[in-house]
Amino acid sequence: MNPVMKNRLFAWLQPAVTGVGLIALWYGVKKFFGIPTFVLPAPDEILSAAWTERAVLWASALVTVRGALLGFLAAVAVGFLLSMALGFSPRIKASFYPYILVMQMMPVTILAPVFVLWLGQGLPSIVAITFMIGFFPVVANTTMGFISVDRNFQELFLMCKATRSQEIRYLRIPGAMPYFLTGMKIAGTLAPIGAIVGDFLAGSAQNGVGGIGYMTIAYFSQLKTPALFATGLVACVMGFLFVGGVNWLHWRLLHSWHDSMVKKE
Amino acid sequence: MGFVAMNQPPVVKIDRVGKRFGTGPVVLDGIDLAVTRGEFVSFIGPSGCGKSTLLRLIAGLTEASSGSIVVEGMTPADARELMFFVFQDANLLPWRRVAENVELPLLLRGDPLLKRQERVARMLEIVGLASSSTKFPWQLSGGMKMRVSIARALSVAPDILLLDEPFGALDEMTRDKLNEDLLAIRERDPFTGFFVTHSVTEAVFLSSRIVVLSANPGRVATVIDVPFSYPRSAELRETPEFLQLLGTTAHALRGVRT
Amino acid sequence: MMTRCGALALVALLAGCGEKAAAPAVGAADGAKPLTKVTLQTDWYAQPEHGGFYQALVKGYYREVGLDVTIEQGGPNSMPVQKVAMGNTQFAIGRSDELAVAAGRGIPVVMLAALMQRDPQAVMFHKESGIRDFKDLDGRSIMAVPGAAWVTITERKYGIKISVTPLDFGLSRFLADKKFVQQCFITNEPFYVGQKGANVGALLLSDTGFSPYRIWFSSRDYIAKNPEIVRAFNAASIRGWRDYVDGDRQAADARIGELNKQMTPEFIAFSVAAMRKYGLVHGDPAKGERVGQLDAARIAAELKQLADIGMLGQPVKVEDVFAEKFLPDDVRVKSAAK
Q: For the segment B174-195, what is each residue's pLDDT rounded down to a tens digit?
């Protein structure tokens, strides 16, 4: 087997073997300590519950994805615009940045009832909560991007007699892209979590089917522990998909020219 | 003697110029210099003598604290359309391809698309990078990047070209080649040149005059005339006259070393 | 302020992994026979809905039957079923339908007696919303515990649709929105929102025909190994409950007030009055109901209701979930052939 193929084989073989080991450990621990299923279910019980509940899990995943996606897009769009304002006007930044920080620090549990009173139960509030959780990383990173523009580039634009708006369009915005995309990556990781938390605080369910967060409580109160873990599994998959999606976007926009993407020779 | 017309009014007049950043030390003090059209003037001196600052003052990138600079009868800021700057680091925007970097000044001043494309193609030909027009900066060597930077500077056909240690990071062979290329370009499309360097060889090879500055504060220590005619060839570097001038200049430089 | 069926605590689920047998007998009160230590895990912070147990404690009824009882307060994540099943506590408070669901998952827990014949769970609303009856809940959003059986049963019975939003154990949303409907204890939340000026109305959930008992329970393993202790605990607790509702509860209330600062005398009076008004503890004596009683027939009917809506993972028989022999004789349901 030639070295290139060997490397590729190892790349997925190593985590696969570890995975098998971890699962074996799981069964071992369960058997050794005699842990009952309603406390810690076995992997096969979780998968079996996932299959049985698949219709409900799918429906609830869609609910959560909808909230996560909308909240994420809102965080990215509003975050970007806000960063522009903060990045280009030191006065605005000095005036508003501390309050943005405060909003970030305030626990979502306190703000959630305010959203619910204002926007109503269900999707609008979930989107608002997801937005709250995701927009600060976007703002913090992107603002940094707009501000940290290379002084040499600024001189270049000065030599070209560029107007302020030309500088913004051709220098600051492209220059801020790597920072913005970093912020977007972080927001993408947080969005599913935000939507699930939003579900606890502001979710709503018809026919016993709500978002992932809602189903977590429902299964817990019904002592359906394998199904509870199955929702955890769904949440993981959702997280991976989100992160994968944002990473792809990151690659697509930056791979041609940015340090982080370009392989060093 | 080529283009150096000695009895013309100066194209750049630097009159008792001083520069100080805020409440810091005085970087330049009482600089006087008159440069006529077509000259190539190098500034050399120890670190901290303010040569880069002087270059930036002429370019209008910063303002003098005292004295005045007149460029083509205007302040440097007003005269910016007639000048361009080549930075120490090639200073290419990493997200733009080579052609897009070269066209940047033309784009910003509003030239239409076809005119830009035509001009960029010509510039890349002149610096010998026509085949690299779609590459990104990270794909180029240091020498190539600098040539793109020069192509960009030339795209606006400046009357005055200012270069701030552009070849400092390159190896000697590349540097020598680029020196020759620069003079060749100047033969075809003349400009008045201002050049900051640490290399005495470079200064002597390129310049019509060398200004030696002392440091702390930066003052004109001496001005050396370089009598060789243009166009200059690579062989010039091996002539005894060249070597002698090298020695004189090096001696002057040692004299201002603190 | 409170309701049962805890919120989320996944980590805690994995935390309680250890078998603890009942602590061996310790220090004697009367010198002759040492008292047996047992623990009762309640489902919330100390409140009048636990009154009978505190009565038995402060009046010494437990001591008289040889028990040294510790009453462990619960909270939003008290998880009584898990704790009993894992052996972390000997007795705990719950609801008969919770026990049925647990048994349906194969968890070996068994109910012993009832502290209330009728569960105090209710839905409260602002009278301005025009709600009079369960039918009027159609199309509304109710803050309740996700997965609760009563929602499905109520929907089916009245042919209505309810949308559920997770309970946050607070009152601010209710107070801010006149259309808000919230699951509560009829002995509890209406007092607080009434104090804040809300014109509050409530519907007792057991009026829907789904009427669980509020019970205490233990593990199958424990009752097999300690029948005498179980009998003694049951008897003393039932005595405490009778005494609490009908007798002098000052000392018990004082103890509750010590443990939970929010239990003002005013509030406790409201709570106990509601217990009397709705016959929660006594039930309906005309139908033969007694304090502490559990009726196997009624439990069987409830199991059927739960099975019908698919809440039971596997079929559950009454004997799986109720151990009648530990009830004192005078409390048991007398058979028809008497």
A: 899 999 999 999 998 899 999 9
